[in-house]
Specification:
Layout (H helix, E strand, L loop, with lengths): L1 H22 L4 H18 L9 H22 L18 H15 L3 H11 L4 H8 L3 H23 L1
Helix pairs in contact: 1-2, 1-3, 1-5, 2-3, 3-6, 4-7, 5-6, 5-7
């Protein structure tokens, strides 16, 4: 089981982390913390995975649920963990790209839960069929929704850039 878990971790940890970054608006320490929680849950529940869906779909669902539980818990405690505090960006050729990603994640965070889940999965390259399965939307509805989300995000980023 350890070998299987290691393979799962190696192939999915970056995707889980980026999905968490989307939920926590670029807060790297919170994304790290919740990503660790996700993999603890995966370890604990790996034997109960029934194989009714792709393992990546199962992992996305655990990630989404863990992020939402953390947000709800923080809201109940009236703690504000979701403030966007950009990390200091080193001066390098990637600095501009990092800033654009932070702006994008800032805009993604403003979306409602379903749209946020959908677009984050699209950005990870998850097939529409799998996204539809996770979100409960039909593929046709999902395609229209993604098109509208992309337009909305483009406008949001343009607004931030002035």
């Amino acid at each position: 089981m350890e070998k299987e878990f290691g393979e799962i971790y190696n192939s999915h940890h970056q995707k889980v982390y980026r999905l968490c970054m989307g939920y926590f608006k670029g807060n790297t320490s919170l994304a790290d913390e919740v990503s660790q929680e996700v993999f603890i849950k995966i370890w604990e529940k790996l034997r109960s995975f029934r194989g009714e869906s792709e393992i990546s779909t199962w992992i996305y669902r655990i990630t989404v649920n863990t992020c939402l539980m953390h947000i709800r818990s923080a809201n109940k405690k009236k703690e504000v963990h979701l403030e966007f505090v950009p990390d200091s960006v080193e001066e390098n050729p990637e600095g501009e790209k990092e800033e654009q990603l932070k702006m994008l994640y800032s805009c993604i965070y403003k979306l409602n839960e379903l749209n946020r889940i959908s677009i984050l999965m699209v950005l990870e390259g998850v097939p529409y069929e799998r996204i539809a399965e996770v979100t409960g939307l039909s593929e046709d509805t999902l395609r229209v929704r993604i098109h509208r989300i992309k337009k909305s995000l483009t406008q949001c980023v343009k607004k931030i850039n002035g």
